[in-house]
Amino acid sequence: MTVRDRLDPADVERMFDRIAGPYDLMNHLMTAGLDRRWRALAARESAVGRGATVLDACCGTGDLAIELARLVGRSGVVTGLDFSAEMLRRAERKSPGEDVARVQWVRGDATAMPFDDDSFAAATIAFGLRNLPDPEAGLRELVRVVRPGGRVVCLEITRPEQGALKAFYSLWFDRGVPALGKLFDRRGAYSYLPASVRRFPGPELLGEAFHRAGMTAVRYRLLAGGIVALHVGEVVA
């Protein structure tokens, strides 16, 4: 696969189907295991409690959806949506314990979701927004399905702009990750990853997109020295 900044949606779907098997392992290796902590933080930032109905869009293999299930308990419902059938198959195998919410896995397009308006108390999206053909359309769709006053939470990779971490990040993410990824996929999936981050808006610009999508009280924080950004916005009542 030739590395490009953008791929057709069908190409992205095929790519994620192809890497579903090593996806979790690569996430842990790329982040030194910090991805688990980031997902737990994103789940808490959704501010949902017991009995809530929550969406995790672009859910991948389901780790964030399962974190949400722990928060909302047996009386809650979590929906994980993804367009990759293979990712969803992996997610279905991760059976959460009996004391957490039921998770329903739905195959669908995050820019045209099969849910009614105001269906959820909150929605999350982790490391998936930059893969959408129109990220702002994805944000508007998240706002549509979340009830007024509910939160939209986004985890996304970003690029440190200064300091010693900037040089390390460039070396590891632009060179190390693609080299490591070749052990699992020789068709370029993990070369697409840094390319997709380079063309994605930085944290401030993404915050502005949250406002344009219909959110208020938008804020973000940088994690791990600026490698990851966590954005939170509230759907306008």
Outline the fold blueprint.
Blueprint: H1 9-18, H2 23-31, H3 34-45, E1 53-57, H4 63-72, E2 77-82, H5 85-93, E3 102-107, E4 120-126, H6 135-145, E5 146-157, H7 164-181, H8 189-198, H9 203-213, E6 215-223, E7 228-235
Helix pairs in contact: 3-4, 6-9, 7-8
Account of the 3D structure:
α4 links the parallel β1 and β2. α3 packs across α4, α6 crosses α9 and α7 packs antiparallel against α8. The protein is built from 9 helices and 7 strands, in the order αααβαβαββαβαααββ. It is an alpha/beta fold and 237 residues long. The N terminus is likely disordered. The chain has a single domain, classed as Rossmann fold (3-Layer(aba) Sandwich), CATH 3.40.50. A 7-stranded mixed beta sheet has the order 3-2-1-4-5-7-6, sandwiched between helices.
Instruction: Provide the low-confidence segments as ranges.
Output: 1-5
Write down the Rg.
17 Å
Named at the architecture level, the CATH assignment is 3-Layer(aba) Sandwich
Judging from the principal axes of the Cα atoms, what is the shape?
globular
Order of helices and strands: HHHEHEHEEHEHHHEE
Q: End-to-end span in angstroms?
A: 45 Å
What's the CATH H-level homologous superfamily? Vaccinia Virus protein VP39
Instruction: Profile the largest sheet.
Output: 7 strands, mixed
Class based on secondary structure composition and strand pairing: alpha/beta
Number of strands: 7
Number of domains: 1
Strand order across the biggest sheet?
3-2-1-4-5-7-6
Helix count, DSSP H or I runs of 4 or more residues = 9
**What's the CATH C level?**
Alpha Beta
- Estimate percent helicity: 40-55%
At the third CATH level, what is the topology name? Rossmann fold
Average pLDDT, rounded to a whole number, is 88
Tell me the β content.
15-25%
